[in-house]
Structure formats: structure tokens, C-alpha cells
Amino acid sequence: MLAMMLSDWERMWRRKKTLVSLLIFALIIGLDCLFLSMQKLGAFDNVSTVPLVSENFALFLLKEVSFFLVLIIGPMLIIDSMNGEYTSGQLRMVLIRPVSFAKLFLAKWMNLAGMLLLFTAVTFAVGEAFGYAFLPGADTVVFLNPEQQYGPIGAFFYCLKSYGLFYLILLAQLSLTSLICTLLPGVVLSYLGWIAVAAGSLYVSDSFGFLLMGMSTIFKLTAGLYHHPFYLPLLVCLGFGFAVTMGLWQRRGWTK
């Protein structure tokens, strides 16, 4: 299993899309840092804003880059790994060997989860470093709920919790996008399928709004102002997508 993961990890990094995505993401983070530092205010929505300080900068940096991770970079990497290799024929060259299709999917899923964790961790590290280097500090910080005040340590863990919740949303996206890639032929159709599922979830139930409006959900959830189920729908998306996709990979003739 470890050898399979290492082989897939190497193929992932040999693809130009992975390196280009990393470079573009680094550029986006840099530009957003400059934009936020000049703006001086962090906006939770169109109404609620707070002064930007070193203790909350990482949270609002995540808000700025979350759009690219959820709708552009994340789906592109997932689809390229899950669907692009099959479409280009690279996956057939791997699967002619005596390997388990389900284990290969698991290796890909875990590698992509690691890749998404890398993007999330880099954002957090840059946000914390930039905030403490270039923004003023504060003795207490208020987030969306004005009744809750946090000191520097409390604000750090508040931001860390928000990043953890966002990463869980990315994992749910990974499972659902993997399923869509398996059901739909072609990279373009898979991407359009993910956009349709994310947007359509808003019409199914407000509880699935985190797929498209993740940061808005996280802001309200961490402030105690979110009035819909969150963890159960998230685990359903994560577990259902993962289990069904693994079953499909195990049963389909990928080498034909």
C-alpha cells in the first residue's frame, strides 16, 4: 500500500498542473496578504466587519483563498488525478499490473487529502507569519459573535479550529468529486458536474450549503450562530462519496 501511495504521489508531482497550481496558489496568497493589509478590515459578510490584527489575519486570509481552493484548484487537482489519468490512458498502464483497484483509489484519495492539507497548512502558516510580522497586535479579539472575546492564545486556536473545519469541507469535496469523476466521462464534464452538485446542494437543503459557502458556514458555526446540522451532513458527503466510489472502482473494468 505504501509503495502504491509513493508511486501515485510521484506521478502527481510530475504533472505540470500540480506544480502550476502550487505556484498560482502561492501568488494568490501573496496578493491576498497585500490586499488585506491595505484594507485594514476583515469582513465576515456585507454587514459584520472587525479591524484586522495579527491575531485574526490568518482567518480572513483563508476566507480570501477559500474560493480558489473549493472551486478551482481543489477540483482541478482531484479531477486530474481521478479522471485525467484514466482519460489519457496513464491509469491503464498502472492497472495492468496485479494491483487492487480499491487500494489504488484509497492511495489516490489519501494522497489528494495530503495535498489539500498542504495547501491548507501553507495558508495558515503564511497567515500567522504575515499577521504577526506586519499587523498590530491586540489584547482581545472579537470575531463574528461580539459577546465572545479571545486573547492571543484563544484567537490562535479559534483560527486553527476554523482551518480544521475548512479542511473537513475539502475532504467532503474530495469524496464527492471523486464520485463525480467516476460517473462522468471526461475532465470538463467532471468539473461541471462538481459545480452543479455544489450549487444544487443549496436547493436540496441549507445543511449542505457548506459545499459552496464553506467560510460563511464556518464563521457562523464557530460563533455559535449556525442553526443547521453541520457535522452529520458533512460526514454523509464524505463517507457516502468515499464508499460508493471505492465500490465502483472495485467493480469497473478500468483496463478495457
Key features?
globular, 256 residues, two-stranded antiparallel sheet
Percentage of β-strand residues = under 5%
Low-confidence stretches: none
In DSSP terms (H or I, runs of 4 or more residues), the helix count works out at 9
Query: What is the string of SSEs from the N terminus onward?
Result: HHEEHHHEEHHHH
Description of the molecule:
The protein is mostly helical and 256 residues long. The protein has one domain (2-251). The chain is built from 9 helices and 4 strands. The strands form 2 sheets. Strands 1-2 form a two-stranded antiparallel ribbon. The protein has a two-stranded antiparallel sheet with strand order 3-4. A hairpin with a 6-residue loop joins strand 3 and strand 4 (149-150). Helix 1 crosses helix 5 and helix 5 runs antiparallel to helix 9. It is globular, with a radius of gyration of 19 Å. It starts with a helix and ends in a 5-residue tail after the last helix. The model has no long low-confidence stretch (mean pLDDT 87).
Write the layout of secondary structure elements.
Layout: H1 2-14, H2 16-39, E1 41-43, E2 49-51, H3 57-88, H4 90-95, H5 101-134, E3 141-142, E4 149-150, H6 152-183, H7 187-204, H8 214-222, H9 231-251
Antiparallel strand pairs: 1-2, 3-4
Helix pairs in contact: 1-5, 2-3, 2-5, 3-5, 3-6, 3-7, 5-6, 5-9, 6-7, 6-8, 6-9
